[in-house]
Amino acid sequence: MGTIYIVIASLIRSLGGEVIIPPRTSKKTLSLGTQYSPEAICLPYKLLLGNYIEAIEHGAEAVIMINSPGICRLGEYSTSIRNALDDLGYKIKYIDLDLYKGKFAEMMRCLKTVTGNTNLITVAGALNIAFNKIFILDNLDNVLSYYRARELEFGAAERAYNKALKWIDEASTKKELKEANLLALQEIKKTPIDPNKEVLKVDLTGEIFMVLDSFSNQNLERELGKLGVETKRSMSLGGWLKTAIIPKFMRKEETHIERAFKFAKPYLLRDIGGDAIESVSDVAYATSRGIDGIIHISPFTCMPEIMSQNIFPRMRQDGAIPILPLVLDEQTGTAGFVTRLEAFVDLMRRKKMQVAAGMAY
Ligand code: SF4
Fold first, then answer.
1. Is residue 22 a part of any domain in this protein?
2. Could you tell me the CA-to-CA distances from 181 to 113, 207, 303 in Å, in that order?
3. How far is it, in rounded angstroms, from Cα 256 to Cα 235?
4. pLDDT, tens digit, for every residue of 18-58?
């Protein structure tokens, strides 16, 4: 799921474990996952299964899967993936990180099983660095998006970003991480840009895996960057961490889910699974900030996001900003996808011009 591998690998390595990072998610990963998955299961499941198979083929002896509370199919992922790997005959250790059973205690149990390290101080230090990496990576994504929408040579900002990822990945102490972050920001900021370019600002929301994973969303942010659009992910790893892991007394600001319950009213009053309440509220929140548009991304057959997409027409009637719902799966073709993005960008530009000219929209 996007750059999360950097965080998990850092955590396990700093506790003395060895990590096998599977190849980047590719068509081969998708094809492996699809071959051994139920046909109608959601896309993230197929990609995760494909990632696991590739990791095992590269020598992984154990795999970890988060089993998280929720009303959607995520709660079934772990058991189903375990069964699929068993059926394929892989003799690996399957470690369930079961967040149903508690957060920190369960994380400690999982890390102990993987690395054998039980020293509380070392574990706390490693978690601290891993959590900081999450916030740094989120920020780098925003900086990349700013530069990509304005760069003079297409691809320059992303090349710098990829170098930066490597530095963040390699940092293993607090001091190294601080230096890597500074260096990373400097590197991306070296990208030659046109600072006066008129860019559109678009938020991305939807099912978290699809928002964060560039393979699953067909490099949506890169395509939008080419069209002069700066994106901001409403769903982020840092947001998830604050909501799901960091206890209330350790954080100051409102979490994404707390904001979601406020902004989703009156359209949705309770959590219906997945990221639906966040998605609906993100549209209302983006509208309140007056940005140019919002894109909602979900995998085909994702039930919570089908519900949120059915709420959007009503939000449009109530004056919401332009919303583009994208439902993606392994059958989605690139050409049609890019055409839809171009049409959406045209629509947002026209609306902006009409508003600037004082015309009713
Ligand atoms: S939110 Fe949607 S895509 Fe994600 S696990 Fe649940 S049903 Fe599947």
1. yes
2. 31, 28, 38
3. 8
4. 999 999 999 999 999 999 999 889 999 999 999 999 999 99
pLDDT mean values, one per 10 residues, the chain (361 residues): 93 92 94 92 95 96 84 87 96 87 82 87 91 96 98 97 96 95 98 96 96 95 97 93 81 89 94 93 95 95 94 95 91 85 96 82 56
Range of the domain at 311: 199-361
pTM of the full structure: 0.93
Q: Is the CB of 74 under 6 A from ligand 1?
A: yes
Q: Measured between alpha carbons, how far is 305 from 296 in angstroms, rounded to an integer? A: 9
Instruction: Please indicate, yes or no, if residue 7 is contained in any of the structural domains.
Output: no
Are residue 168 and residue 228 in the same domain, yes or no? no
pLDDT at 103: 76
Nearest partner of 101 among 113, 111, 110, judged by Cα: 110
- Is the CB of 274 inside a 6 Å radius of any atom of ligand 1? yes
Separation of CA 297 and ligand 1 centre (Å): 12
Rounded to an integer, what distance in angstroms lies between the CA atom of residue 77 and that of residue 299?
Answer: 15
Are 175 and 234 members of one domain?
no
218 and 324 share a domain?
yes
Residue 6 lies in a domain: no
pLDDT at 248: 78
Residue 322 domain-assigned (yes or no) = yes
Alpha carbon distance 97, 65 (integer Å): 6
What is the rounded end-to-end Cα distance, in angstroms, of the chain? 38
**Cα 175 to averaged position of ligand 1 atoms, centre (Å):** 38
Which of ligand 1's atoms lies nearest the C-alpha of 41? 8
Q: To the nearest 10°, the Cα dihedral for 98, 103, 108, 114? A: 30
